[in-house]
Design goal:
Elements (H helix, E strand, L loop, with lengths): L5 H14 L5 H52 L4 H7 L26 E2 L5 E2 L29
Antiparallel strand pairs: 1-2
Length: about 150
């Protein structure tokens, strides 16, 4: 978009050396760098906003396709009354029908021991206690005496 070739930069530098006196050249370069940085920042912000708009439109398109696909699946496979009852267990009154509420079983997770390549069970890695950390005492260097000024 705003592409500046190295030869163009070299030409601008040569013109700057001829036009700007050497003592003002560092200040001019600093000002030019400042404005180039501001222009790059504005371009970066513009590009980020544009990318954000594109990302949002793609997300909206994906949501629309998902809704259409969900609608198609629901048309092809309509829910049965039994499925609807399972979807909302809190709304079904099991005691009114004289039955019991379904039992939900949750199994605890299985924790396997650590085994190395040879098949030997390894112990958990030891973590040093905070007391085990030894800190070195800080020592101060003695102050260096200043030489007396002779008059």
């Amino acid at each position: 978009m705003f592409d500046i070739a190295p030869t163009e930069l070299l030409l601008l530098g040569a013109v700057a050396i001829i036009v700007i006196p050497p003592k003002d050249l560092p200040k001019a370069m600093r000002v030019a760098g400042y404005w180039v940085g501001r222009a790059r920042g504005a371009a970066r912000q513009f590009r980020a906003g544009f990318d954000n708009i594109i990302r949002e439109s793609e997300l909206n398109e994906m949501e629309k396709r998902w809704a259409e696909e969900n609608e198609r699946i629901m048309r092809e496979h309509p829910p049965t009354p039994a499925m609807l009852a399972l979807d909302s267990p809190g709304e079904h009154d099991w005691t009114a029908e004289g039955g019991e509420a379904p039992v939900v079983t949750v199994e605890p997770p299985v924790v396997a021991p650590m085994v190395d390549d040879t098949g030997v069970i390894q112990a958990a890695p030891a973590v040093p206690a905070p007391e085990a950390v030894v800190k070195k005492p800080r020592t101060r260097k003695p102050p260096v005496p200043k030489p007396e000024a002779s008059s």
